[in-house]
Amino acid sequence: MSLNEQLTADLKAAMKAKDKTKLSVVRMIKASLTNAKIKKAADLTDEEELQVVTTEMKQRKDSLAEFEKAGREDLSAEVKAEMAIVQNYLPAQLTDEELSAIIQETIDENGATSMKDMGNVMSKLMPKIKGRADGGQVNQLVKKLLS
User: Fold this and answer.
1) pLDDT tens-digit readout, 86-98
2) Which PANTHER family does the entry link to (predicted)?
């Protein structure tokens, strides 16, 4: 089942269940995908769809950080619920151990030995883990393993 078909099915289910939060999130994702499709003037590839959903998740993470910083627990709870729904449309996230193993393997493949090699390692690493790990977390682990 394609992402668009899954979103349509979930949209119908959310309408029937009168789940306003899920309905809102699914509509927002569908709108973002439609906007990206219009902007590209062609159908999106699976990778491009994943990028749109990843962007939706990142926006919610940024909002969550701002709401928590401002002490708005009511809005924080709402964003956390939205993030849980968006997570359903992303691939399973890598565990720290799996991520460390992939990073170490990439470092070994490139013969990286110092922080000077970080850009090269990151450029080779990100396509391998696209959508399955947070970029900030990856950056920290690469720094730790290279230092």
Assistant:
1) 999 988 888 888 8
2) ALTERED INHERITANCE OF MITOCHONDRIA PROTEIN 41, MITOCHONDRIAL (PTHR28055)
